[in-house]
Amino acid sequence: DASDIEKGTYPYYMLKEIDEQPLVIRRLIEKYRNEQGELAIDENIVQAVKEADRLYIVACGTSYHAGLVGKQLIENWAKIPVEVHIASEFSYNMPLLSEKPLFIYISQSGETADSRAVLVRTKELGHKSLTITNVPGSTLSREADYTLLLHAGPEIAVASTKAYTAQIAVLAMLAAVAAKAKGMALDVDVTKELGIVANAMETLCDAKHEMEQIAREYLATTRNCFFIGRAVDYYVVLEGALKLKEISYIQAEGFAGGELKHGTIALIENGTPVIALATQEHVNLSIRGNVKEVVARGANPCMISMKGLDMEDDRFVIPAVHPMLTPLASVVPLQLIAYYAALHRGCDVDKPRNLAKSVTVE
Ligand code: G6P
């Protein structure tokens, strides 16, 4: 659809694609639903997942970060062990495989050479594969046994946004359907919860002014920036840091809150921005403890918490969503902060230096 790939009134594709996220989630709810309104995924795929003794997610970049969140979802809901691997590492340092592995390739483009190299290898070994991609007919889709589509529409900006959230949403639906297929009683109505997520995303997309303020206040001139989170927030801060690096060229790193003190805290100076996420009740106090540790060393903290877990002085509070689905909401402010930081620093948001949308060489 040609209208899908026009910027319209948007200055950059990235901003347009961030704003499309609620729509993409709603579209996915429609696409993966049967006539009875229940979540539905191709029977063959569900069977392959159910039969596997372990899932191996293989991906690069942002898609790898979506895979980490997928592990959390699948292990919690479907109780199937999941390993997540960086494609370029897997090729040369293959882990010991289980007896009945299923390989899941996550790739927006479906063309990433590093991921394809692993697919070729695992096919040679006779293992089944599923590709989760935005591009029907792409190489990884054609070469795998099964495909699940992201239905996110063309993603033009080099920095991936809507494909990441679509990947997580598809993985959440797969986890829920697999749980049901295994006869487990899942007390989550995933379709309903994703609808709540879409509404929350809309609210977050409306917070552009606040995110611009944060970018201006914390990131206008800084040389570096740290992101911290615990549990699933850790996976999201890895993505938040990657977004910031990719488009603003600020040296940004995501860390597990508790790991900072084991080395990286040495880098904290007066005024170093530390963006923290707190969306998980069981680690709410401990991540706040980590923020205190960096503040004591002079850091400039920016706490982004979820409604219900918020405390005085938090910089921004995101609407409450299901605790397993928080990455879909919490990543939006991080995407917007990266966007505005890049904008303020005069960077080409859609076409960052040294990067390509899809890397077709190993
Ligand atoms: C490139 C892009 C990244 C992307 C990665 C994986 O490096 O610049 O934004 O996350 O490839 O791409 P894929 O299409 O496989 O998801």
UniProtKB/TrEMBL annotation:
It is found in: Cytoplasm. The gene is glmS. It catalyses: D-fructose 6-phosphate + L-glutamine = D-glucosamine 6-phosphate + L-glutamate. This is Glutamine--fructose-6-phosphate aminotransferase [isomerizing]. It is an enzyme of class 2 (transferase). The active site is at K357. It comes from Anoxybacillus tengchongensis. Residues 45-184, 214-352 form the SIS domain. Keywords: Aminotransferase, Cytoplasm, Glutamine amidotransferase, Repeat, Transferase.
